[in-house]
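> example.struct
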């Protein structure tokens, strides 16, 4: 098949694979205010998919050999988009975290499938094939982060931004299905994945990619907080330039506790239970 169609298919499927993480950062304060989430609970929205990718990625090849890489990848992105739409409609923090697990499962399973597609459909151009879906990851995530706040402002909140970025995943699946022809060869019964526990190179690769993921996802989680810190610093600088800083009283109040499953609650809702009142 034409290599151009393969590269285009890998690009468009990659567009949907990181939007669900990168749309969170710009809207995290709005999300926390609406759902009563603490910073710790809100951080789980970004960390849950990463944990899923680490734990469940070995099952991606099992799905691919059972259903075929083309169908397996499509189902994973449908899982990401479907749970993304569900997450945008849920009213409680705990339910939102549950939907995030579903998103993480889709991200985890598709991770090993795309390299399989490159090996099968672009074996003569492995660098181009890998670059195509990596470019999709970068473009999709960057666009999601860039449009999150404008969509939220235009359509009434974070839910609209989450829903629209999730709905875009279905467009990626449709284009993927059109660009990539059906898989050839026989399917096999699912088998337990065999992991290279005794291979030092596997541990080294795991360490390298784990460190890379820690740095990347830690940075994008921190960026929104760093932006707020900078704006506060600009406010203090403006007060100083106008000679008002010494005459301005800044009140610093104590924070509150956090529900971590007590009474079936997560985060800080409008209740007066002791775990929430404790400083």
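> example.seq
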């Amino acid at each position: 098949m034409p290599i151009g169609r393969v590269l285009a298919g890998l690009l468009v499927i990659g567009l949907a694979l990181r939007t669900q993480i990168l749309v969170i950062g710009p809207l995290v304060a709005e999300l926390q205010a609406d759902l009563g989430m603490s910073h710790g609970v809100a951080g789980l929205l970004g960390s849950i998919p990463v944990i899923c990718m680490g734990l469940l990625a070995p099952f991606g090849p099992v799905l691919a050999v059972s259903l075929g890489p083309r169908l397996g990848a499509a189902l994973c992105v449908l899982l990401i988009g479907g749970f993304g739409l569900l997450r945008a409609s849920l009213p409680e923090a705990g339910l939102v975290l549950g939907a995030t697990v579903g998103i993480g499962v889709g991200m985890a399973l598709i991770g090993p499938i795309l390299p399989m597609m490159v090996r099968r459909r672009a074996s003569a151009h492995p660098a181009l094939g890998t670059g195509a879906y990596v470019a999709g990851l970068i473009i999709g995530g960057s666009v999601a982060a860039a449009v999150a706040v404008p969509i939220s402002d235009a359509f009434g909140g974070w839910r609209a931004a989450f829903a629209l970025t999730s709905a875009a995943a279905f467009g990626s699946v449709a284009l993927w299905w059109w660009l990539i022809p059906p898989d050839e060869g026989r399917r096999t019964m699912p088998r337990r994945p065999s992991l290279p526990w005794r291979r030092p190179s596997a541990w080294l690769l795991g360490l390298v990619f784990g460190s890379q993921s820690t740095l990347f996802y830690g940075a994008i989680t921190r960026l929104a907080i760093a932006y707020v810190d900078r704006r506060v610093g600009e406010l203090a600088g403006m007060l100083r330039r106008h000679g008002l800083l010494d005459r301005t009283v800044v009140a610093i109040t104590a924070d509150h506790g956090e529900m971590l499953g007590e009474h079936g609650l997560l985060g800080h809702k409008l209740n007066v239970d002791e775990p929430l009142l404790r400083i």
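> remarks
DSSP finds eleven helices and two strands in the chain.
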